[in-house]
Structure formats: structure tokens, C-alpha cells
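Justification of computing resources. Each target in the renewal requires a structure prediction run like the one illustrated here; the chain below, 211 residues long, is used simply to show the kind of job we budget for.
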Amino acid sequence: MTGMSANTDQRPHIIGLTGSIGMGKSTVAAMFAEAGIPVFDADAEVHRLQKNDANIIAAIETAFPGTTDDKGVDRAKLSQAVLGNKEAIKRLEAIIHPAVGMSRMRFLEDNRNAPVVLFDIPLLFEKGGADNVDSVVTVSAPADVQRERVLARPSMTHEKLAHILGLQLPDEEKRARSDYIINTGTTLQETRQDVRNLIAKLQQSLADEQD
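Resulting C-alpha cells:
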């Protein structure tokens, strides 16, 4: 982890925000955005590409026939087409990841003067992305809280949850490999204050490095 390394190339300090399913990562990302930190949401960008990018839609239809329609990619059908199939997932990632990478580069260019930006990346550790950020923040909550949140989602089952968790690094290991941890097993007010405290700490550290 590079932690608070000096920002010698004049780009923003990049926070990598991650966390397992149901941990409240999207809520925490929104709190960073509310506090004025530019946020790149990888999942949201994938959704946008699958809905609006004609080249991406065509490539997915070619690789997985019947998974698109006139509204773009049918995410439920695509999920069924790749669920549990590692080779299919790799084919899909080969289509999506380069496009998301280009979007991320444009985001960095658009926010090049910001002192801090945040990349919201669910599989930050699993896909090796932790090496490309300056500090990692993991969002975490107790396992029983996590399960309750996830199983309350429409169409979610115990089996599906088990499969998803099997694809993700255990929460304990994510926390051990992170620079900072945001606890979402508390109230929203407490979590929001933790986010604000972390932003202040990062900003102070960056200011100290520039002195």
C-alpha cells in the first residue's frame, strides 16, 4: 500500500473505496461526494456503458447472444449467461474493463486539479486495482448486518449470496490490507462523521507533505 505517498506527478491523491456486498459502500461513496470529493463509480459506469454504448452492446451480444435488446444489455439475462462460468466472466471483463479504464482516465483528467478523488471499485483487491491507488478505504459491517441487508434485496437468495461472497475476498482480509476502515454497522450520522474525519485527515496529510 502506498499510503500517503507524495503526489509528485501533480495528479490528485486517489482513494480506492471497496467493500463486500451489503457493507454500505455505495452509501459511503455518496457521503464522500456530499463532502465535495469527486467520485468515479465503476459499477455505475458499467451500467451506463451497457445501456448507451453501441459498441459495447454489440460486443456483448456477439459474445452472449440474446442478452441485449433495444434498451441495451438485459442485465438479468447477462447475469444468467455468465453466472458461475469463469471463462464467460473473463470474456465479459475483456469487453468491459478497457472501456471503464478509458472512462476512469477521462475522470482523472477532468478532476486533475482536485487534491483528492475517489474510485468506487467493488473488486479492488480481487482484480489487482489496489496497486493503482494511493490509499485504500474498506467499508465494513458485522457479518449478521451484512447478511440482513443483502437478503432484504429483491430476488436475492441464500445460495446467490453464498456464490457472491465466494467471489469476493473475505471482509477480514480486506480490512487487514486497507489503510483505513469505515464502519457502517453504526448509525448513518456516525458513519458520515467518520467519512468527514477521514477526509480531514487525508487533506491535512497532503498539506503537510507540501510544506
